[in-house]
Amino acid sequence: MYKKLKKKDGFTMTEMVVTVALIGTLLSFAVPRYTSVSEDTQAERNIANMQVIREAFFHYFYRMHQQKGRIAHFPSQPDNETNVMDETWANTPIDPRLSPVKPKDLFSKKEFPKNSNNNPFKYTTWEEIPTLTTEQPVDVDGDGNQDVDENGELVFESITVTGEKDYFIKIEDIDLDSPSYGKSFTYSI
Fold first, then answer.
1. Residue 1 pLDDT > 60, yes or no?
2. Assigned domain for 92 exists
3. Stronger pLDDT, 70 or 108, i.e. the higher one
4. Domain residues for 60?
5. Does 34 score more than 70 pLDDT?
6. Would residue 88 count as lying in a domain?
7. Residue 141 forms part of a structural domain
8. Domain count, the chain
9. Total-model pTM
10. Residue 42 buriedness (CB in 10 A; 0-12 / 13-18 / 19+)
11. Among candidates 82, 165, 80, 90, which has minimal Cα distance to 126?
């Protein structure tokens, strides 16, 4: 009978406390690491989505450039206050004079990529004509010599040279709760 009372079928209180302490210690290292990996993954997903948008817009630009009678252009930027690619903008034809294609139609699932919090990105577009201004010596009298002023200094005139038009787009994550908040990419053709 005495042997039956000494028989153990469970854990002692000391074993239980040690086990719980070990599990707690392991979790104290694992949970922050998991959170960090999760945020990094979400940030990488957001960056990938911004690059998908860029690729779709560049393909659209090149298609417009190759079609006769069309002028190459990116989709116009949203006209809402923050320039976010919201549903209204995504469902509006890019160039209603030429085609009913909408920004969301540029994607295979007909859905616009968003960030990991399911919020749209900010999108802006603009065009620039690069100019270079340089000072060139002047030969006004045509004698083949550079002209000088009354102080004996060479006379120069400013010449501005323009190049081809550059097209720019900028895609930015403006969601304060996003792990890629403030990350932006500017591309040009």
1. no
2. yes
3. 108
4. 13-122
5. no
6. yes
7. no
8. 1
9. 0.69
10. middle
11. 165
